[in-house]
Please model this.
Amino acid sequence: MKSLIGDLFGKSPFGPIVEHSKKVHECVELLWPLLEALIQEDYDTIHRLHSKMSRLEHEADLIKHDIRSFISQRYFLPVDRSDLVNFLARQEKIADLAEDFAVVLTLRRTTVHVEIQDLFLCYLNQVFQVSGTLLTAAVEFKNLAETAFGGAEARSILKLIENLGEEEWKTDKMSRKLSRAIYSLEGREDILNILFYEKMVIMLGSIANQAENAGDYLRVMIEKR
Amino acid sequence: MDILIIGLTALLGLYMAWNIGANDVANSMADAVGSRSISIRNAVIAAGICEFAGAVLVGAQVTNTVRKGIVDPAMLAAIPGISPQDAAVILVIGMSAALLSAAFWLNLSTIYGMPVSTTHSIVGAVAGFGVVAAGWQAVNWSKMGQIVASWFISPLAGGIMAFLIFNYISKSILGKEQPARAAIRHMPYIVFLMTAVVLLATIYKGLKHVIKNIHWLTDSRALALSLGASLVAAVVSYFLIRAKLQGLEEESLGKQLEAVERVFVPLVIISSCSVAFAHGANDVANSVGPLAAIVHVLKTGTIDMKVPVPLWVLALGGMGIVLGLATYGYRVMMTVGTKITEITPSRGVAADIAATATVLACTRLSLPVSTTHTLVGAILGIGLARGLGGINRRIVTSIFGSWLFTVPAAALMSMFFFMVGKALFFETLHTLIAG
Model:
């Protein structure tokens, strides 16, 4: 039984987008036990967590494919289609980076020097903050569709995105501090270890960067029109 | 023997009305059902009552256009070398052919899920028979042009109006820091607008038709009366809404919005009912217009410029619509009810007010418009106001396509049926009517 008016309503992409954000944040959350396992030199756990990460990343991918079908040319959307695609791409990048981080940890039995352990955990925590804020913004963004992308709800989410930028800036500062601590280990730490530390720092920093970029696309979608 | 012909054509009219009920009616309640404001069962009952009331109370005006406006019966009588009896027989066969082809086309499209308009079908069918029976000049092309224009104007008008109304709702209520408080302030205006539109339609035309000779009910008095009643409704609603929403200021934005949407629920039910009413008023003509012409010809044996539409004919059309709704439209309603989760009560109200106002304005101007397409226009208008998550572009295209396709298809079919009917039944009918 077909119904004209029923078919007229295309699917809304905003619900699934929140699903995607949640899945991506789950990937980021997995970084914490990964780093802890590395500090405790528990390499079996790292391998186990890596396969979990890889599964989560795949699940996020599936959600993304699903959303891509919503935002085909077939549907009129209240926001710019390309902005939505870009937002999704940035979010996906976050999950990719988290997985890459897990891969790096599996590559060799790296040990974390005791002097930088706390700094590392602090830094990771800050990256969490950024990813968490992005998730909150995505959830709010879905609610925003209820109020036709305007008014008080829009202002509150723009504020949230502003915070996101602030937190990313803090992440940058911490990354510089951590890098200095890492290079001060020169001569006292295996050079290959230092190389791996640097890799990890850059990856975590990219996660925060991508989260900020994703937030920017949210901002563009709200402010357009 | 006349009674046999009337009975047979009445069956045709009933078949057409059944199709209208099966195909179209669910759409009028779509906003209420889709926003989960009313159960499907209750929606069917409410739609049935409103469609019937609309058909019987307001239906007569448009009946004239479809029957006489497209093909002037006088043109049939004026064909050189034709006797009045011949003309009467041709009209009976032609109108039956038009009914049959429109209903058949509609039935076919319902089966294949094609979004066609009942109004388009009957107008095309009547025009088709007119061309074959009396040549191109028998069809009132300026009237036809007016009707074609209304197909584009009505969704456009519905769309613009819905855009404006929803924009107002979202700017002044949904987008505020405290939606609950804003709703207390602004909802009465929306209630006023809605009641005014609904009442103007019902009082102004409905009552005038049913209770004849109400001389005091002039246009301006009807206007004053409905505006006054709307004012009362707005004031009453203010207190009701305040009682419901006051004290919610401290709640979270989401909670407040939820509460505000709940306030829209009764409105969307009332306004959807009025869409059903307007639909009944406008679309009953599609089934009983030709029937009324036939009945008149058989009773008097002559073709008149103006004929009264008997109340029983309107009632028959209304019954057919309700029957179609109960037997087949029910399933369409189920689909609508389970599929549309996108629409919220506030969006439904905006679409419904816009659609009712447009359809009733067009009915008043004696233009048969498609309720479905007006509503589609209204929903698109809300989509453009960033009110909906997604709208299926493919369906929109197919609706536009069906506008262009239905009229010629119904016309061709009607030509065919007319020629077959004339070849088979002309002699029989001629002796019946002449004798």
Observations:
- Strands of chain B lie at 391-392.
- Chain B touches chain A through 50 residues (CB under 8 Å).
- The mean pLDDT of chain B is 82.
- Residues 253-300 of chain B form the longest helix (48 residues).
